[in-house]
Amino acid sequence: MSRPSFPVPPEAMGALERLWSECHAGYLVGGGVRDALLSGTPHDPVWDLATDAHPEVVLALFPGSTYENRFGTVLAGGVEITTFRRDHSYGDHRRPDTVTFTDSVEEDLARRDFTVNAIAWGKAAHAEEAGWVDPTGGRADLAARLLRAVGDPALRFSEDALRLVRAARIAAQVGLTIERDTEAAMTARAGDVTYLARERIGRELRRMLDVVPPSAAFRILERTGLLAPLFPELAAQRGVPQAKIPGQDLWDHSLGTLDAAAALAPDDRMGKLAALLHDTGKPETAADGHFLGHEEAGARIAQSFLTHLGFGGPDVRHVSRLIRHHMWSYVPAWGDSAVRRFMRRVGPDLVDELLRLREADNVGSGQPPGEGGVAELRERIAEQRRRGVPLDVADLAVDGHAVLAAVGREPGPWLGRTLERLLESVISDPQRNTPERLLTDARAWAAER
Fold it and tell me: Domain for residue 259, yes or no?
């Protein structure tokens, strides 16, 4: 049996062979084929297969599989198997109003977005040998490093406006130049992104953050006029002065910070989001060359931005906290208690990411990453951790029940205030973290009221 020139995971190859064994057509298609031809490694671990078998047949062939949607896609393990189809009108500029199944792989490929995604490897029912099906010249475009729409670019983008965003992301992700007519159509139809559901934009934003470097995708969005209708909070940074690097403005700085954050921690999407959004508060706080309070404004903007795009509450709060605290300053004269208060104020869970954000911010400003004592502060924080110093009420040698028993009062707001006061005393002097000293302090404070 023939095999493609690139490695195919056993699960995907097994699904193909299962379809063939039942006399159905089966083809590898989509981004997995594109990426494998370019680099040998797909960016998405889920492979796409196309077949002439209808969904109910696929469900029967693959026990435990699930019918994903009304467009003929069945999820079987780590493989998505979709029936060949023709799409009809796209009334909402997002998804086809109706689809019709077909027996033709060529018809199926003709409805796809870009030629490099319209390449198939496999075979028809009853065929002896597997091979390539490439009716739109996708392999030639890959060889030329071109991203070209299938057929009429304006029509392709009018069908599903998300293709506009995907074009920028795919071109940046795999290093393709957008073909001239395709890019012109992107610019002409940029306003169509207002039809998109915010969650779909949010999913593409997550994927753009994984591009190396991520700034490449955002620069394409800006060049084609897509940035402002998609992300007005980001576009507002263009033209805001940024004096640290001659010839660059605030948007250039934010993109440089984003790329630096991605280089420091490639898998930390929240850190990359914080880098991208950390100065979004500057345009509205700009006055006389200063941006007082921009970190608070930026945290508020980031919260609204991420919530609107469908990010979960924990992620929204995490990024907002990073931005709110990103203007910290350190001086070597800090005592150990000042280091502990810094850790307490920003949150022990956030400290490492906050230092990394400062390193990225420094690089984005044309400075060495360690500017401002980052390395020294990181070592001092590590020393406090090695010593196991308390930084949270839960780290105290007593809990609320012990304080209640020692003081002899009913629970109330005073208890939380007392525990916080005890923690502050322990942060100042960790030697005070014993039950005897803490309960003595609690009783003394209770007697003051």
Answer: no
